Amino acid sequence: MRLGIFGGTFDPIHNGHLFVAESARLAEGLDRVLFVPANHQRYRTRASAAIEHRCAMVLGAIAGNAAFALDDADLRADASGYTADLLPRLHAKYPDARMTFLIGADSLVNSEWVRFDEVLDALERFAIAPRPGVLADALTRVIGAVPARLRERVRTLNIPEVLESSTQIRALLAAGRSARYLVPEPVWQYIVTHALYAPPRNA
Questions:
Q1: Which helix (H) or strand (E) holds 203?
Q2: Do the strands 125-129 and 68-70 form a parallel or antiparallel pair, or are they unpaired?
């Protein structure tokens, strides 16, 4: 079985996430894509929504695609938040799987990856989704630093740049504006029902 691993905060999950996952599934010949929410974020600010809300939104977003699933491997109390530690746990859980890690170009370029060679060693592919504002030379520089023996595992997905971002959606909602149709309808209804990302009460 060929598995796609799509990690992230998903705060909230949006249509761009789903587009990248489905595009990668088809381009890389993946049997399933696992959405793996992170509880510990090493390189970003703490998530706005609690993990139970973020997981519920992921489940609502992916319910219509039988090839998508939620995995809680990065939510365990002993999870370090490092991809190099996550992948061995996933290999133990799915011992016969060949894995492709999905990531946005902005996350790759703007984060200081720890034990990146271990990450690539554990994967069949490391697939990068293009993102607005990420210069080609910055991406080339990061990929060029990968050990030569592992470089062939890294590829950029040939898909349009995804404009949506969770940061943009949170900002719209914090300003009292609508983000409907930037997120799947079940996610929008969940956000409204639970008043997530709402403007501050004293605003």
A1: none
A2: unpaired
User: Which residues have CB under 8 Å from 177's CB, separation 6+?
Assistant: none
Residue 159 to residue 23: CA distance in whole angstroms: 7
185 compared with 150, residue with greater pLDDT: 185
Q: Where in the chain are the domains?
A: 2-164
CATH architecture of 2-164: 3-Layer(aba) Sandwich (3.40)
In this prediction, residue 200 carries a pLDDT of 73
Average pLDDT of the segment spanning 73-78: 88
* Residue 83 CB contacts under 8 Å (≥ 6 apart), including other chains: 7, 101, 113, 119
pLDDT per residue as tens digits for the range 104-140: 988 888 877 888 899 999 999 999 999 888 877 788 8
Q: What is the pLDDT of residues 27-40, one digit of tens each?
A: 999 999 999 998 86
b/e map of 26-64 (b: 16 or more CB within 10 Å)?
eebebebbbbbbbbeeeeeeebbbebebbbbbbbbbbee
The three-class DSSP label of residue 51 is helix
Q: For residue 127, which amino acid is it? A: A
